[in-house]
Amino acid sequence: MNIWMGPGLLPAAGLHDELAGCEGLLCLLTDRIDASLIEANPQLRFIASMSVGVDHIDVKAATARGIVVGNTPGVLVETTADASFALLLAAARRLVEADRFVRGGHWRVENAWSPEFFTGKDVAGATLGIVGLGEVGQAVARRAAGFGMKVLAWNRTPRNVPGVEAVELDELLAASDFVSINLALGEETRNLIDERRLALMKRDAVLVNTSRGGIVDEQALADALSHDRLAAAGLDVFEREPVPEDHPLLSLPNVVATPHIGSATEATRIKMADMAALNMLEALRGEPMPHCVNP
Ligand code: DGY
């Protein structure tokens, strides 16, 4: 058994070397399992990922080779919905900007409370558009109900959820004060929120993304945010992670950025680890994985 203990991410070349001769792999969402890695390992039987998303794995190539792929659904739903709402509130009320202001020593008598001082955007009573009404999207909707928000949602296969109005995606973008992205990244959702769709949003709207960076065109988002065509964004995920320090989004004061911590509570990470380990152990015993994406 080969175990990567860090420090940091396992580089692709290291994964290639460590996997040689292994029948199974327990990996994280930071490990790229592409077709060439799968091809280079004819003995590989299963991949258990400690994540619900499996966009880091070429599932098509794995399935074609008969490799079973497991994930960790369900256990991170509420934690990730909390993170979506935390980003929504932080971006709406400019919390990070205000925190930097205080710590930076700028809160002085000549620069203090005034009627327009750090004014943000009301959440209570506003319209929230949820893009992707899966388990996390529905958990975000439940939180929104507590804030008296009107909730619109778009899902690729329409879903009937009480208290949520199903609408077309373009209509949702045009009508929402807040937009929360809660869907998986795949061929059909890559760049779903592109320049044209961002332009449909209200100028004072806030975009929140805790799912995958590749769903939003980041350059178009940075342009919209820096030209007052969008009020703010709360982003936990980026197309490339770790996000490069000089990324255009990171220079904008109206962006709240976090390092893919949507599911990062101790309890949830333990549940995810247990599920991934169980998937691995069952596969090792030759049994079906309890949570398999390509049965
Ligand atoms: C996942 O499991 O796919 C999440 O992105 C982790 O936060």
From TrEMBL:
The D-isomer specific 2-hydroxyacid dehydrogenase catalytic domain, residue ranges: 13-294
Species this protein is from: Congregibacter litoralis KT71
Gene3D superfamilies: NAD(P)-binding Rossmann-like Domain (3.40.50.720)
Protein family (similarity comment): Belongs to the D-isomer specific 2-hydroxyacid dehydrogenase family.
GO cellular component: cytosol
Protein name, as recorded: Lactate dehydrogenase
InterPro entries: D-isomer_2-hydroxyacid_DH, D-isomer_2_OHA_DH_cat_dom, D-isomer_DH_CS, D-isomer_DH_NAD-bd, NAD(P)-bd_dom_sf
One annotated GO molecular function: glyoxylate reductase (NADPH) activity
